[in-house]
Amino acid sequence: MKILAIDYGTRTVGLAAADPAVPVPLPRAALRVRNDRDALEQVLRVLREEPFGLVVVGIPAARDPGRSWIVTKARAFADRLREASLFLLDGNDLWNND
């Protein structure tokens, strides 16, 4: 099963792809984004172009209380992506909310 790993950022969203045939995940793209809507549209475009069996959005560790806002934004982005992309995953909810 191919896996798309997403590193959420407010200006850049990093993508890496993992494939069972390759022993390590490979960087796929660094998407320059204007806002969360643009990020969502660009990631959905990638999901339409290439089939992935699983999508993982990394949630940053908030070691610095002053940066907890990025954790909130990353979780909200993951939730919106999940809602928008379920149809791309043939209706199978392969997301893990833990």
Detail the topology: elements first, then pairings.
Elements: E1 3-7, E2 12-18, E3 26-32, H1 36-49, E4 54-58, H2 68-85
Parallel strand pairs: 1-4
Antiparallel strand pairs: 1-2, 2-3
Task: Give a brief description.
By secondary structure, the chain is an alpha+beta fold. The chain has helices at 36-49, 68-85; strands at residues 3-7, 12-18, 26-32, 54-58. The chain is globular.
Categorize the overall geometry: globular
Structural class: alpha+beta
SSE arrangement, N to C: EEEHEH
Q: Tell me the span between the first and last alpha carbons.
A: 20 Å
How are the strands of the largest sheet arranged?
A: 3-2-1-4
The poorly predicted ranges are 90-98
Radius of gyration based on Cα positions: 13 Å
User: What is the oligomer described by this structure?
Assistant: single chain
Description:
The chain has 98 residues and is α+β, with helices and mostly antiparallel strands. 33% of the residues lie in helices and 24% in strands. It is built from two helices and four strands. The chain has a four-stranded mixed β-sheet with strand order 3-2-1-4. Helix 1 packs across helix 2 (68-85). The chain is globular and about 40 Å long. The model is unreliable at 90-98 (pLDDT under 50).
